[in-house]
Task: structure prediction
Amino acid sequence: MPAANTVYLSNPVVTLGTSTSITGYCTSARLVRKFTAADTTVFGQTARTYQATLEDNELTLTLYLSYGASPEVYAALKDLVGTQSNVSVAPASGSNSATNPKFTLTNAYLEELPVLDAKLGEMSQIDITFKGGSYTAATA
Result:
């Protein structure tokens, strides 16, 4: 098996809507592109077969919790709970390219927002998940 040709230091850029950056609060970003599978197996087959149906994407972010004015985390997210919004993540800052694609979920749903997660002597962190939405990858 050949060695990896390209390795990058994880330092993604995370944007809500078109311009609200929450990059400075983010410690983890995981975007999964997924399609719900429909079982298309019929009599006589010896293995299950599947077909893609609806796209079912998910972006999970781990953020330091802060309560200042926007773009601080609580202020930037509080009005997005229960709504659809656009969210983007790119592997690094700089122009969109084949080596730095900007991944966007359009009309992704934010179901819940932990408004407090405090532990003695620790900086508060929360995990949020944007569900669904149409996936695009901009390379230019």
Observations:
- Helices lie at 73-77.
- Strands lie at 13-16, 20-21, 26-32, 35-39, 50-55, 58-64, 84-90, 102-110, 125-131, 134-138.
